[in-house]
Write a structure and sequence with these properties.
The structure is a single chain. This protein starts with 5 loop residues before the first strand and ends with a helix. By secondary structure, it is of the alpha+beta class. The model has no long low-confidence stretch (mean pLDDT about 90). It is elongated and about 65 Å long. A hairpin with a 7-residue loop joins strand 4 and strand 5. Helix content is about 30%, strand content about 20%. Strands 1-4-5-2 form a 4-stranded mixed β-sheet. A two-stranded antiparallel ribbon has the order 3-6.
Length: about 110
């Protein structure tokens, strides 16, 4: 990456944007190197760093293909399905629990008995 210019928070020149800002404009970095970075100082830890990319070198976001939509739907369905009872519960099951609330309660009752 080499040496890149470092700017203080909110003082970066026009024509540079973060990944999120590019995405809001319907753009992506498109393989370009980091053009600069901004640092926001914090009291007890190191500074927050955001990498900046040139807007004029950014490319449009790729369109979602039917295969990508299908893969995304399949991944989301897997996150909603309880691994124990195989029921689609309609929301993403927290990874901290790993299973549907009723299955979790039944598991805890069995462990307590």
């Amino acid at each position: 990456m080499g040496a890149v210019p470092v700017y203080r928070w909110r003082l970066a020149p026009d024509g540079l944007a973060t990944r999120r800002q590019l995405r809001a404009l319907g753009l992506r970095p498109g393989g370009q190197d980091v053009a600069a970075q901004v640092e926001r100082p914090r009291r007890r830890r190191g500074p927050l760093v955001a990498y900046l990319y040139r807007i004029d070198a950014a490319k449009p976001v790729r369109e979602m293909t039917p295969a990508r939509w299908a893969a995304l739907a399949k991944a989301n369905a897997a996150r909603r399905t309880c691994p124990r009872c195989r029921l689609d519960v309609g929301y993403c099951i927290p990874t901290s629990h790993g299973m549907y609330g009723r299955c979790l309660a039944a598991e805890e009752q069995r462990a307590a008995a």
